[in-house]
Amino acid sequence: MPHAARSAVSVCMAAYNGERHIEEQIGSILAQLGADDELIIVDDRSTDGTRDVVRGIDDERIRLVARDVNLGYVRTFEEAVGLATRPHILLTDQDDVWLPGRVEAMSAALELTDVVATNLGTLGGPEKLRGPFGQNDWRLRADDSRHHGRNILGILLGDRPYYGCAMGLRRSVLPLVLPLPSFLHESHDLWLALAGNVQGSITHLEIRSLERRLHDSNQTPERPRGPGAVVRSRLVLVQCLRVLRTRRRVLRDRANEGIHP
Predict the structure, then answer these.
(1) Could you tell me if 100 and 21 are in contact, meaning their C-beta atoms sit under 8 angstroms apart?
(2) Angle at 235 between CA 252 and CA 134, to 5 degrees
(3) Predicted local confidence at residue 142, as pLDDT
(4) Mean pLDDT over residues 176-202, rounded?
(5) N or C: where does the chain have the smaller number of CB atoms within 10 Å of the terminal CB?
(6) Are 16 and 37 in contact (CB under 8 A)?
(7) CA-CA distance, 214 to 78, in Å (whole number)?
(8) Minimal CA–CA distance to 212: which of 76, 116, 91, 115?
(9) Which candidate, 96, 91, 82, places its Cα nearest to that of 26?
(10) ω into residue 179 within 30 of 0, thus cis?
């Protein structure tokens, strides 16, 4: 049963050709879920046995959505989050391993703020991440949770380690977050991070809540490395920031007029 002190959670996973590792990941997730929680898995038209592996796990908390068309991981996450029914939503990749205490810590943070982000380690690799500017211990720090302007600048500069697989959000903030902009084809995690900071409501947890498996076919790839790709991705983030600020203003105006989203 879920802990009495926390709200129920929806765990949202985007899956694609993940038959090698998805069962281990699902096991690490279910071990932390209670009877009122749910795990939503949207399969982006896998060509391997991913769907069979998921269907073979006998657990009524799992909801598998088998898509007929491949739309990419950003749209897959968008669909999964849109299907969530619980007050708190946690994102997950298909091939990581959750560490004990993740759900309790992230859900507690979501009682206070709209978005939560944690640090992560790597499975079989270094615990500390190396940053883009040579940092030996690149991580989110709790003291930066309220420095929203600084965080937004850090996102635009590529100097904030926000990873979707280490993030969560309140379902009540979905009118701001969804739908994702049509021009957003990568970095849904940075979209969520921008949303939390634009809203002025994000918590950085310094814990490492999962171990990320690194391999050539990660569902969420690393940031673009070429200069041209980096510039293009930063321009997209500027567009995202404009969209979020406009949505926030519209939602505020509607709330002031008594119109619910």
Answers:
(1) no
(2) 110
(3) 98
(4) 97
(5) N
(6) no
(7) 23
(8) 91
(9) 96
(10) yes
